[in-house]
Design brief:
One of its GO terms (biological process) is N-acylethanolamine metabolic process. This is Glycerophosphodiester phosphodiesterase 1. It comes from Oryzias sinensis. InterPro entries: GP_PDE_dom, PLC-like_Pdiesterase_TIM-brl. Belongs to the glycerophosphoryl diester phosphodiesterase family. The structure is a single chain. This protein has a 4-stranded parallel β-sheet. 37% of the residues lie in helices and 13% in strands. It is globular. It contains 3 helices and 4 strands; from the N terminus they run E-H-E-H-E-H-E. By secondary structure, the chain is α/β, with parallel strands linked by helices. It starts with 10 loop residues before the first strand and ends in a 13-residue tail after the last strand.
């Protein structure tokens, strides 16, 4: 799609460990074999996002859950010509950090003030 029109924005969205764990970090499955299988799938999915899918899909942005975004991570993607967008940033302190320190865009549930986190 971007080969036809480079102005189109495409992105992948990723939250590490999303297959094996819930948003608050608790295991998604009580069965040990399901949990370990999904943990392995999480590792493969993470590898695929960072080494195969981004190139295959021709993305211009990578949407990453805020807890996994760092300056090194932003630079990793910048070297590949991909912009990082963090989600979901809901406090004024987080918004200032992502804007002024990391200098990246973010997705939020609240334009004014703080908002409770959602998992």
């Amino acid at each position: 799609m971007r080969q036809r029109d480079p102005e189109v924005v495409t992105a992948l969205t990723h939250r590490p460990w999303s297959l094996s764990r819930l948003g608050d970090g608790t295991p998604r499955f009580s069965s040990p074999w399901k949990h370990y299988w999904m943990t392995l799938m999480d590792v493969l999915l993470d590898w695929a996002h960072h080494h195969v899918l981004w190139r295959f899909c021709g993305i211009s942005a990578f949407l990453m859950q805020k807890n996994f975004v760092s300056l090194d991570y932003v630079q990793f993607w910048a070297q590949r010509g991909v912009e990082v967008v963090a989600w979901t940033i809901n406090t004024d302190v987080e918004k200032a950090y992502f804007q002024k320190v990391l200098r990246i865009n973010y997705i939020t549930d609240s334009l004014v003030g703080d908002c409770e986190p959602h998992f």
